[in-house]
């Protein structure tokens, strides 16, 4: 399929969720009519696929703990079906959705719930949420975590002290409605990118095996050990690693309906990553919400040149190795001792589940000598990125997470494992366990 | 002593006539054999005509349409969605006819605006790329159910009596003078009076037949010939609104080329086939396919869109010159008031035939004027300036949007359906969950409708749109039944559920492919298995041997060891 064909195909798919083209707009013919204004797709036809079967509602973690939440069937196909053109009202309950997107994956008939929810949230924030409201300001700050993290990592020690200093947190709760119960993540004293340039970039050169690392914000500013583990592990397998310029993947922005912010960041990401893909690299991410955004939300929400190429060539770091290397064979002969020789209670993040990756760590580590791993079930951790960082949602977030905490307590081990930074936060918050990323364990298994 | 009049037919024309007569002081009884809108009105395309459609071929009708269009916007805004309309010219369609259409509209006083294909596609992105030009006209979507109910309600306000489920079986005569009607009840009326099989008579000074396609049958009761030129048309309902404007094809031969957005759906239609019997004509699959094909030429996405049902209606056309007409499509859309005393030497009897939904009010006015002449009543018509109930204060729509603690799209739809009755219906303190999810109908609306119409869920459906969404009642008929059960016995509620479920099923039979077929199967499994709806022992008269089932926990006996057995 040629690039142009692919773009056309994407265009068609976006225009109508059931693959019926009204008429594709050909970028090579500027005189073609652009009938949908930038980013305004009519999602009503997507409701055609819904049989009202309610599977989505049974998979919704918010609906399970909040009786007043109308659930994904209403937020998605029903609300869109009821809309008329030029109607701007979106039900405010859309902001109670945590954006776990389990509904999107669970739907047996392919209703594009993720796109419907994200678009509705964007419209709600644009048209109905006052930009002067505390809620808007708070959400904007949370959604633009990268901006805050960049500032904080200039003075990491000060930030670490201040952000968890009780009086400061009390004030934040009072003014910005950020719950004081939560512990702010520690900022690394050296960011991953600083470390990367200090070490002189890639240590392995291999034009046939190139990966571009999308580290996201968290592995860059906070858990740099995950990013470093990824680098050493991939170099062990002979990959040349590129770290192109990049911004936030947009996940927290989608979840807060800040689609303009997300688009700005997406433009940088698509431009830089599509360029390295053109040169033969694949893109990998260590955070499952980042890979999810690049693969799933980008082509659904934005129409940027090269976005389809990026979506098709993005992988989760673990998934990619399992595809391209005999990881299972290698695991048989490896063993782990020391810090990572643990019994892990593993939680699969919703966004890894949505990519079909929820069993990968379990399948991999049960054959690894020195490591025990136990799946703590398929419940949602409840934090959902910035969701659990809002005072009015903190209780709900903990209620959703209750089942996971319970299963973690019941598991043999007392160390957690997950691919998602905020799920890790929640696991730690609810149980007090240390939490690690699968890449750290793999590094311990293969790299001396 | 006011003259007594019986109006036969509870469609738009009948209810409109009853209203006008009652407003001018007549003592009116309206008889309808089914629900209100049971006949043609309930099976219309719901097109508020600008007249553009007839601007070339039938200018007299076109002028009536544009005049009534303006009046209805004033008196019944809550029955109208002002979508606007387009006559689209596709590549290859005649330029000459396009010009004729424009000229015709100008001659009839219909405002038009020519826009480019590009502009048309900006307004309606799903229009085909073949769109060359379009003419904007003030078409709209008209809700026939709300319209007839509002007319009937206002007639009752003015002292009329409205009898539904009351079929006229004979006209009473004294020599060649019609003196009243004999009718048989098909069931209790909306106030729960009477029961099935009751035969009653009503004496009247005059009988008006507004029976539409059935006018010939009514006239035949007194050996009067009214030869109707009825024709059927199929309409297909899509699941979502692909468009928000009425789209017509700008072609001289126009069958099935009007696409009308209605509430959450779009109606495709309608073809034009002559039939003999308005109660018995074939409903054929090719008609449904043809409607989809014709509409897809203008809106390609419709070709693969989900269709939720198809239905047929009959046009109550009357051809004053049957010799000269070759095709039902050419029969005039004009209406005629037939004074049978003048025409057939039968006094006390008038028929009103032909016409369109858009011109119902004018038809009612003509009949009423005619009766005022006859009885020497000196009262001017006011129906063109007195708003219908629910429409008195359009600003209320805005005011009550979202005030009732409902989800906003839900509140919006509710308030649009209820008009200025919204506060009265939605203002209660009780919890108000959504009962019909597809159409966002809440409990308060359903209870309000049941209070008015009794255990007749089909009429509740007409008033509220409950069960008219994409699951076609699969997920809500039983919930609606539960609301009936508040004021009625269980068997009554069950019968109401069955009747509605059947009615919903009937309309889907011609659209069972793809997604709607899957939906139908899911509905069937839910009702047949989960709810045992198809094998209810109560209905089958079976006796069930309950003892054959697990008898549950036996009485346990405690043994010496303290353990129990029998678990």
From TrEMBL, chain A:
Skewed-composition ranges (Basic and acidic residues): 1-12
GO CC annotations on file: glycerol-3-phosphate dehydrogenase (FAD) complex; membrane
GO terms for biological process, alphabetical: anaerobic respiration
Segments forming domain 4Fe-4S ferredoxin-type: 39-70, 86-119
Disordered: annotated segments: 1-32
Keyword Transmembrane helix: no
Record EC number: 1.1.5.3
Gene3D superfamilies: Alpha-helical ferredoxin (1.10.1060.10)
InterPro entries, alphabetized: 4Fe4S_Fe-S-bd (IPR017896), 4Fe4S_Fe_S_CS (IPR017900), Cys_rich_dom (IPR004017), G3P_DH_GlpC_su (IPR017753), Helical_ferredxn (IPR009051)
Keywords: 4Fe-4S, Iron, Iron-sulfur, Metal-binding, Oxidoreductase, Plasmid, Repeat
Designated name of the protein: Fe-S oxidoreductase
Species, as recorded: Halapricum desulfuricans
Gene name tied to this protein: glpC
TrEMBL record, chain B:
Reactions this protein catalyses: a quinone + sn-glycerol 3-phosphate = dihydroxyacetone phosphate + a quinol
CDD domains hit by this protein: GlpA-like_Fer2_BFD-like
All residue ranges annotated as the BFD-like [2Fe-2S]-binding domain in the record: 434-479
Cofactor: FMN; FAD
Subunit-level organization: Composed of a catalytic GlpA/B dimer and of membrane bound GlpC.
Primary enzyme class: oxidoreductase
Localisation: Cell membrane
Membrane topology: Peripheral membrane protein
Entry's Gene Ontology cellular component terms: glycerol-3-phosphate dehydrogenase (FAD) complex; plasma membrane
Its EC number(s): 1.1.5.3
Protein family: Belongs to the FAD-dependent glycerol-3-phosphate dehydrogenase family.
GO MF term list: flavin adenine dinucleotide binding; FMN binding; glycerol-3-phosphate dehydrogenase (quinone) activity
Keyword Membrane annotated: yes
PANTHER family linked to this entry: GLYCEROL-3-PHOSPHATE DEHYDROGENASE (PTHR11985), GLYCEROL-3-PHOSPHATE DEHYDROGENASE, MITOCHONDRIAL (PTHR11985:SF15)
Record pathway: Polyol metabolism; glycerol degradation via glycerol kinase pathway; glycerone phosphate from sn-glycerol 3-phosphate (anaerobic route): step 1/1
Record protein name field: Glycerol-3-phosphate dehydrogenase
Transmembrane segments: none
InterPro entries xrefs: BFD-like_2Fe2S-bd_dom, BFD-like_2Fe2S-bd_dom_sf, FAD-dep_OxRdtase, FAD/NAD-bd_sf, G3P_DH_FAD-dep, G3P_DH_GlpA_su
Domain FAD dependent oxidoreductase: 5-361
GO biological process, one term: glycerol catabolic process
Keywords associated with the record: Cell membrane, FAD, Flavoprotein, Membrane, Oxidoreductase, Plasmid
Top-level taxon of origin: Archaea
């Amino acid at each position: 399929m040629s690039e142009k064909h692919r773009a056309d195909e994407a265009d068609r798919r976006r225009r109508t969720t059931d693959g019926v083209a009204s008429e594709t707009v050909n970028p090579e013919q500027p005189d073609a009519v652009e009938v949908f204004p930038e980013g305004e797709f009519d999602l009503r036809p997507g409701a055609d696929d819904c049989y009202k079967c309610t599977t989505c509602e049974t998979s919704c973690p918010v609906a399970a703990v909040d009786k007043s939440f109308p659930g994904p069937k209403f937020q998605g196909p029903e609300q869109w079906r009821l809309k008329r053109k030029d109607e701007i009202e979106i039900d405010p309950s859309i902001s109670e959705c945590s954006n776990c997107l389990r509904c999107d994956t669970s739907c047996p008939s392919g209703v594009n719930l993720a796109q419907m929810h994200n678009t509705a949230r964007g419209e709600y924030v644009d048209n109905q949420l006052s930009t002067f409201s505390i809620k808007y300001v708070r959400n904007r700050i949370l959604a633009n975590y990268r901006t805050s993290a960049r500032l904080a990592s200039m003075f990491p020690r000060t930030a670490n002290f201040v952000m968890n200093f009780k009086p400061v947190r009390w004030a934040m709760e009072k003014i910005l409605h950020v719950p004081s119960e939560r512990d702010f993540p520690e900022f690394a004293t050296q960011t991953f990118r600083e470390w990367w340039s200090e070490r002189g970039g890639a240590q392995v050169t291999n034009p046939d095996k190139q990966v571009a690392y999308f580290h996201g914000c968290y592995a860059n500013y906070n858990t740099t050990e995950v990013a470093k583990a990824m680098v050493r592990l991939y170099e062990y397998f002979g990959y040349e690693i590129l770290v192109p310029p990049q911004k936030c993947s947009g996940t927290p922005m989608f979840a807060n309906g800040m689609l303009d912010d997300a688009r700005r960041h997406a433009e940088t990401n698509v431009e830089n990553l599509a360029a390295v893909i053109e040169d033969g690299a694949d893109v990998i991410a260590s955070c499952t919400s980042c890979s999810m955004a690049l693969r799933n939300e980008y082509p659904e929400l934005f129409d940027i040149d090269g976005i389809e190429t990026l979506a098709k060539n993005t992988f989760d770091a673990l998934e990619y190795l399992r595809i391209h290397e005999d990881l299972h064979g290698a695991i048989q002969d490896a063993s782990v001792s020391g810090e990572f020789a643990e019994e892990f209670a593993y939680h699969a993040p919703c966004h890894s589940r949505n990519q079909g990756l929820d069993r990968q760590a379990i399948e991999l580590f049960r054959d690894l000598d020195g490591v025990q791993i136990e799946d703590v079930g398929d419940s949602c951790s409840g934090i959902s990125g910035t969701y659990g960082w809002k005072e009015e949602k903190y209780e709900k977030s903990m209620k959703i997470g209750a089942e996971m905490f319970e299963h973690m307590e019941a598991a043999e081990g007392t160390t957690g494992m997950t691919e998602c930074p905020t799920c890790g936060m929640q696991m730690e918050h609810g149980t007090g366990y240390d939490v690690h990323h699968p890449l750290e364990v793999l590094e311990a298994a293969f790299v001396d | 002593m006011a003259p007594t009049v019986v109006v036969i037919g509870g469609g738009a024309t009948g209810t409109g006539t009853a209203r006008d007569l009652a407003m001018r002081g007549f003592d009116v009884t309206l008889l309808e054999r089914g629900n209100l809108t049971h006949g043609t009105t309930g099976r219309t395309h719901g097109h508020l005509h600008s007249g553009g459609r007839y601007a070339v071929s039938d200018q007299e009708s076109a002028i009536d349409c544009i005049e009534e269009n303006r009046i209805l916007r004033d008196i019944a805004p809550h029955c109208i969605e002002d979508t606007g309309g387009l006559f689209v010219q596709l590549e290859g369609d005649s330029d000459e006819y396009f010009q004729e259409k424009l000229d015709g509209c100008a001659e009839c006083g219909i405002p038009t605006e020519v826009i480019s294909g590009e502009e048309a596609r900006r307004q309606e992105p799903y229009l085909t790329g073949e769109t060359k030009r379009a003419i904007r006209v003030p078409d709209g979507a008209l809700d026939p159910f709300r319209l007839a109910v509002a007319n009937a309600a206002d007639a009752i306000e003015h002292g009329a009596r409205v009898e539904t489920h009351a079929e006229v079986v004979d006209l009473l005569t004294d020599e060649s003078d019609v003196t009243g009607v004999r009718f048989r009840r098909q069931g209790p009326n909306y106030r729960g009076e009477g029961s099935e099989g009751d035969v009653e008579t009503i004496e009247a000074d005059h009988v008006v037949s507004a029976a539409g396609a059935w006018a010939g049958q009514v006239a035949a009761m007194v050996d009067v010939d009214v030869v109707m030129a009825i024709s059927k048309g199929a309409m297909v309902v899509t699941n979502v609104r692909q468009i928000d404007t009425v789209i017509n094809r700008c072609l001289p031969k126009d069958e099935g080329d009007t696409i009308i957005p209605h509430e959450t759906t779009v109606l495709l239609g309608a073809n034009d086939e002559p039939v003999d019997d308005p109660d018995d004509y074939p409903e054929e699959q090719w008609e449904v396919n043809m409607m989809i094909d014709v509409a897809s030429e203008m809106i390609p996405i419709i070709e693969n869109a989900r269709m939720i049902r198809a239905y047929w209606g009959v046009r109550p056309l009357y051809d004053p010159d049957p010799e000269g007409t070759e095709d039902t499509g050419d029969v005039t859309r004009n209406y005629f008031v037939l004074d049978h005393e003048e025409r057939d030497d039968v006094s006390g009897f008038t028929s009103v035939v032909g016409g369109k939904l858009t011109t119902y009010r004018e038809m009612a006015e003509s009949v009423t004027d005619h009766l005022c002449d006859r009885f020497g009543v000196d009262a001017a018509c006011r129906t063109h300036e007195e708003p219908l109930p629910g429409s008195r204060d359009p600003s209320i729509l805005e005011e009550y949007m979202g005030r009732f603690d409902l989800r906003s799209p839900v509140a919006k739809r509710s308030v649009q359906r209820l008009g200025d009755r919204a506060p009265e219906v939605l203002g209660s303190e009780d919890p108000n969950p959504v009962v019909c999810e597809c159409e966002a109908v809440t409990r308060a609306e359903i209870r309000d409708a049941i209070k008015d119409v009794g255990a007749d869920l089909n009429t509740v459906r007409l008033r509220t749109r409950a069960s008219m969404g994409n699951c076609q009642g699969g997920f809500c008929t039983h919930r609606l039944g539960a609301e009936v059960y508040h004021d009625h016995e269980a068997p009554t509620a069950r019968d109401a559920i069955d009747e509605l479920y059947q009615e919903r099923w009937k309309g889907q039979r011609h659209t069972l492919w793809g997604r709607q077929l899957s939906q139908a199967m899911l509905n069937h499994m839910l009702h047949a298995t989960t709810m045992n709806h198809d094998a209810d022992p109560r209905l089958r008269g079976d006796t069930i041997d309950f003892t054959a089932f697990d008898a549950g926990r036996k009485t346990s006996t405690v043994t010496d060891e303290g353990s129990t057995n029998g678990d």
